[in-house]
Structure formats: structure tokens, C-alpha cells
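C-alpha cells in:
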């Protein structure tokens, strides 16, 4: 797999996105420092049964930097405005990492626009050690953001020495991170690190089906986090992908795509 840049549309509100396929609307939101191409495997396969919209988060890819995005609800509002403006139908929304925080907030706050939520590699109630680590990284990035600390997550996302397809996967992630807007990265990373997942009450009151999926070997978006959130939601399931780590949608698409497809078909069957 080589680096690919997909042609985008640009909404009046400043979000860049792709639209592929036909059928019910599926929206994909990537994580901090990445871009919509991180969903390339999902875009290619799931567009056979959905209209797949992949969006660059504010300040990422070709989307405008939005200074007002200082917390998860502000990022969510930007996505909700774009859905109302450009998609114009209720959507199944799927997010990865910080994208999953936005997707969950969207499902909680905009249920009229949402048929279901798939949260991939999402964070929920970090341990004290994990909180200290992310606060330290935020401080470092705020004091001096460099190419080295922007690409540092790759060392946490993959097992080293790299083997097989992970050589190319790690290369792509490094390239996306290296080319990210430093202002967009700094803004999003701080929001991501100081968010600890949805409130328990919001999860208990969720009115749409929810899928929580993570990698068996993800040390920061752990299987226990996904299981704990799923246990709180009225209509939910959790799925742990063996041998996967944080970049599960990229590295384990063969296992993950059928799960999203089946979940999406169930959600849209409710309309």
C-alpha cells in the first residue's frame, strides 16, 4: 500500500471530506494528527453497501483550522453542522481514537441525526499513570512542538522492530503525522488528552445502538475501557480484535470491516 491522497469536497463551514458509494450514510472520523486517508481500507470496502463520508477533522488534512474547537463538544458541533449541510440524512457515525470521542458526543447530543455509533480504540477513564503520561506529552508539545514529538505516537502504536505489513502502516502514519498542521495538531491533542470519555449518565441514556471496538494490545484504549462503556449503554456490544493495537482500522481491516458492515446494516434497519 502506497501513500494516497483522495480528492475532497469542501463544505461552506470549512470541513474537507470525501463521498464514495451508494446507500445509507456512514461517516468516518479519524484521530489526532491523521487525515481521512487513515480510513482508506474502510472507504474502499464499505462503499459497496454505504455512502461513505470520510472527513478531515478541523485543523487536519484539508479542513480549516477552527480556533473555537477547544473541547470535544465544539468539534462535535462542527461535524453536526457539516452533516446537516452536506449529508442531510441521519448517519451511522464511526470514529477512531479522538474521532471516537467526537462520534460518541455526536450520538449523545444529536440523536436526531444519528442511527448508531461505532467507537474504535476509544478512551474511557484513564489510569492515574496514563493521565500523568498524557499531561506530560501535552506540556511538551505546548512548549516546543517538533517533528519528533509529533511522530512519537508511532512508537506507541506499533510493535518494534516492525514486521510484515506494519512496515508500510507505520510509514503511512509517520507521513500523515509529519505533514499535519502543527496548530491543528496542538489544538486537538490538548483536547484529546484532557478528555476522559463520556459521562456514565450520558452512556446510560444513549438512545442509539453502540459498538465499542478496540485492539487486544492497545495499551491506552484498552479492551477494558471498551467493555466498560458497552456495559453502560442500553443497546451496545463490544468487540476486541486479537493481535491489534491502536491503529486497528488500518492494520486489521479484514477483521473490522465486516463487523462495521453488519452493525451498520442492523442500525439502518431501525429507520
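Residues out:
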Amino acid at each position: 500500500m502506497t501513500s494516497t491522497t483522495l480528492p475532497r469536497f469542501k463544505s461552506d463551514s470549512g470541513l474537507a471530506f470525501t463521498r464514495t458509494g451508494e446507500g445509507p450514510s456512514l461517516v468516518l472520523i479519524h484521530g489526532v494528527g491523521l487525515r481521512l486517508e487513515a480510513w482508506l481500507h474502510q472507504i474502499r470496502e464499505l462503499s459497496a453497501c454505504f455512502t461513505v463520508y470520510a472527513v478531515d477533522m478541523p485543523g487536519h488534512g484539508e479542513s480549516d483550522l477552527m480556533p473555537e474547537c477547544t473541547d470535544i463538544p465544539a468539534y462535535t458541533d462542527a461535524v453536526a453542522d457539516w452533516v446537516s449541510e452536506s449529508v442531510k440524512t441521519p448517519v451511522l457515525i464511526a470514529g477512531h481514537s479522538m474521532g471516537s470521542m467526537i462520534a460518541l458526543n455526536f450520538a449523545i447530543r444529536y440523536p436526531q441525526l444519528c442511527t448508531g455509533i461505532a467507537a474504535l480504540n476509544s478512551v474511557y477513564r484513564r489510569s492515574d499513570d496514563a493521565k500523568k503520561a498524557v499531561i506530560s506529552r501535552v506540556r511538551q508539545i505546548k512548549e516546543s512542538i517538533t517533528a519528533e514529538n509529533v511522530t512519537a505516537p508511532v512508537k506507541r502504536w506499533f510493535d518494534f522492530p516492525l514486521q510484515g505489513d506494519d512496515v508500510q502502516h507505520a510509514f503511512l502514519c509517520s507521513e500523515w503525522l509529519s505533514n499535519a498542521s502543527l496548530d491543528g495538531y496542538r489544538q486537538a491533542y490538548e483536547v484529546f488528552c484532557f478528555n476522559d470519555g463520556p459521562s456514565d449518565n450520558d452512556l446510560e441514556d444513549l438512545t442509539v445502538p453502540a459498538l465499542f471496538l478496540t485492539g487486544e494490545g492497545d495499551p491506552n484504549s484498552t479492551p477494558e475501557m471498551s467493555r466498560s462503556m458497552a456495559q453502560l449503554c442500553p443497546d451496545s456490544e463490544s468487540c476486541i480484535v486479537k493481535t491489534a493495537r491502536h491503529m486497528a482500522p488500518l492494520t486489521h481491516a479484514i477483521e473490522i470491516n465486516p463487523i462495521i458492515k453488519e452493525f451498520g446494516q442492523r442500525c439502518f434497519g431501525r429507520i
